Amino acid sequence: xxxxxxxxxxxxxxxxxxxxxxxxxxxxxxxxxxxxxxxxxxxxxxxxxxxxxxxxxxxxxxxxxxxxxxxxxxxxxxxxxxxxxxxxxxxxxxxxxxxxxxxxxxxxxxxxxxxxxxxxxxxxxxxxxxxxxxxxxxxxxxxxxxxxxxxxxxxxxxxxxxxxxxxxxxxxxxxxxxxxxxxxxxxxxxxxxxxxxxxxxxxxxxxxxxxxxxxxxxxxxxxxxxxxxxxxxxxxxxxxxxxxxxxxxxxxxxxxxxxxxxxxxxxxxxxxxxxxxxxxxxxxxxxxxxxxxxxxxxxxxxxxxxxxxxxxxxxxxxxxxxxxxxxxxxxxxxxxxxxxxxxxxxxxxxxxxxxxxxxxxxxxxxxxxxxxxxxxxxxxxxxxxxxxxxxxxxxxxxxxxxxxxxxxxxxxxxxxxxxxxxxxxxxxxxxxxxxxxxxxxxxxxxxxxxxxxxxxxxxxxxxxxxxxxxxxxxxxxxxxxxxxxxxxxxxxxxxxxxxxxxxxxxxxxxxxxxxxxxxxxxxxxxxxxxxxxxxxxxxxxxxxxxxxxxxxxxxxxxxxxxxxxxxxxxxxxxxxxxxx
Length: 580
Fold this sequence. Notes:
Layout: E1 5-12, H1 16-27, E2 32-35, E3 49-50, H2 52-60, H3 64-70, E4 79-83, E5 90-95, H4 101-110, E6 116-117, H5 120-133, E7 137-139, E8 142-149, E9 154-160, E10 166-176, H6 183-188, E11 192-207, H7 211-214, E12 221-224, E13 237-243, E14 247-254, H8 265-276, E15 284-298, E16 302-303, E17 306-308, E18 314-315, H9 323-342, H10 352-374, H11 377-382, H12 391-400, H13 406-420, H14 423-426, H15 429-433, E19 474-477, E20 480-483, E21 493-498, H16 502-509, E22 515-520, H17 532-536, E23 544-547, E24 553-557, H18 564-575
Helix pairs in contact: 1-5, 1-9, 9-10, 16-18
């Protein structure tokens, strides 16, 4: 009988969720093992958009610069183009991913980070290499088979795919980050809403020098309206830049009821030729694969000592670029809670807040991504391209927009409006940053419910109210300029106050849990030269914010408190699950 391998946390899957969970746990000093049934990390681009909130997470985990060094920068992401082919007629563009001047200003005000485009096969090595360097044990070719759990831990049975034998790994907790067909989620019996397989799509990865069609209008995405493009899950043929301007991925639909076509090299090249529109450019097909568009989300993310994250809990199309972002943020939310429970600082009740906080986000992401698909239809409607017709008729409809006269003018206006409406997919800044957590790990401060004067999916609204991410403001410390987000995180709570908040500092120092303290004000370690923090903090100088390790505000008190130690102690007992 082989010896049982033991660890604190076993992670099944090495994708964005599993890799970032491992990285966070190892950064916090929590022993963990990652197993993956595959022989390598991701070998295709897959997920790629990396939004500001995820970059903030990666900044805290110390790999932001590694990501930036490998990524396509934001300014090359943003002229989403609608056309008949890359070499054909252009129908319009949307300034995307924060590149609209007004949205760009909002991005700069919202965060110290910049979004970028880093395909999954380049992101995973950054996360995994850092995790392993900090202590994660990684096992390739190791397939999860099953698990049982008891009051003290989880015993997982895995199979070494090289040797063919099975063995057991005993862990205090198990994280299932094993993707959209998660066996861990299935074995844990997580309840799911929605449905799988609502439409069919094909990914074709290829190499071609498309500089002459793309460099003058740099973008991550080029949408091609062509006959047959409305079939499948995206709403148009999609040419996605993997690396400017030579590596590409095409997304093309198929009728899911008829099954995927035979993905021969000839078939893949024919699709590439149709969407590029140039039969002379040399093309090298790297791979092609079929997949289904899903609209499914877990209603609970855990069962006992088993937790799931990433695509195991939210399965949706790539619209809005939310997949890997949500996966990484799931893991970041869970990791600090596991750390505090494992070191005895928190009650296991703290882990119940994982579902309470992340399940609503997962559901929103699934809904938003699928809604974005439907929002492509008005573009076709503007060209009378939804009703059955010959390709020749579609080209005639497209050509009609160039004519003089009232009908053509109305068509042009309708097309412009339809393309502009895609801002909900390509500039949904609020979806990226407006998460609000409601759970036992957040202590309400009695203020009235928050209102959003602008569309909360499009516009980020900073606030220090409990349950929101701490607002970003540039502050200084000596000759250094840093973000308020740089003062928090690193696996511990942080209490922020100002001049007159000495009582809160003493209260924080008296707690049993590790709390960093930050005082912002003239003559203090941190100063607010622009006055931005004074405006955004929403508390008086003598008030206090208690910020969790994940950068979310857990407790807010607007003023000084004569009984600060007792008030803070009561808040922490609730947050950490010790409240009676």
